[in-house]
Amino acid sequence: MKAKIIIRSETGDDITTISEVTAAAFKTLPISNHTEQFIIAALRVTKALTISLVAELDGRVVGHIAFSPVTISDGCPNWYGLGPVAVLPEYQRQGIGTALMQDGLSRLKGLNAQGCCLVGHPEYYRRFGFRNIPGLLCEGVPQEVFFGMSFDGHTPQGVVEFHEGFKASGPPEREYSGSRLSILACGADSLAHAGIPTKIDAKHAIAQNKVMVIDGEVVITGSFNFTKAAKESNAENLPVIRDKGLAARYAENWKEHEKHAEVYVGKGQEPER
Ligand SMILES: CC(C)(COP(=O)(O)OP(=O)(O)OC[C@H]1O[C@@H](n2cnc3c(N)ncnc32)[C@H](O)[C@@H]1OP(=O)(O)O)[C@@H](O)C(=O)NCCC(=O)NCCS
Predict the structure, then answer these.
(1) How does pLDDT run across 122-154, given as a tens digit for each residue?
(2) What is the CATH number for 194?
(3) 196 CA to middle of ligand 1, Å?
């Protein structure tokens, strides 16, 4: 029996997989700068990831599509950029890309979008209704690979600018800016300002591995964030495990991440020379 493709919105648990799927799909594409996974992360951090859908097959995320707002020099509002879109190489040409495109475009119309544009393979996107639109341009992009589709019959004329996130060339956390990082940095600031050596592991799209190892024998992990919401209104779990062997393994894993983490001195403080 053919497995059913499920298209759904991304959740926090999909973030790393989305990065991996995207990097794998673009890995051998000669026209790619191999920054597509960073673009998605930058759009997410700046809250510009209007639609982010994953394709799930047998419980595994095998594809992803992103939509973000664009601006057009003639002032035409509510147009969006499609992309990146990616399907794991071993799952390509089985209709997963088509399912992501169709679902994504239908959700975009549901948000009262007026149109959508993209940069991509001419043969692929025409089948979804995209066309070269004379007078609608994107600087630095050959017109034959720039496509648009109006949803409301009005065709804008001008220069399209994709979101800044498309300039990303590395993980956004590295810049220590943006909304998600500022939340992160609040806690890190408190620690750093209290004189506790603090590092930020900016190598990963998101660090979900919240763990405390105390006195080499107690491991505290789980979802609990030690916030007021966690205490008073959320459903949380907080395993407290007393096991020296397990504590040692967690500490080892922490040290692996420490190797690629960067010293954080806290906002308003200069690093010691
Ligand atoms: C482009 C991509 C997302 C399409 O996903 P997919 O699951 O392979 O697509 P589908 O199976 O739905 O393909 C639908 C049709 O498009 C064709 N097609 C797929 N990729 C194509 C491509 N790069 N160029 C032209 N046609 C393509 C398929 O042959 C299929 O044709 P058919 O229906 O006649 O058999 C996927 O191939 C991918 O991840 N490619 C690498 C990353 C990439 O190029 N992203 C887009 C950047 S512009």
Answers:
(1) 889 999 999 999 999 999 999 999 999 999 999
(2) 3.30.870.10
(3) 50
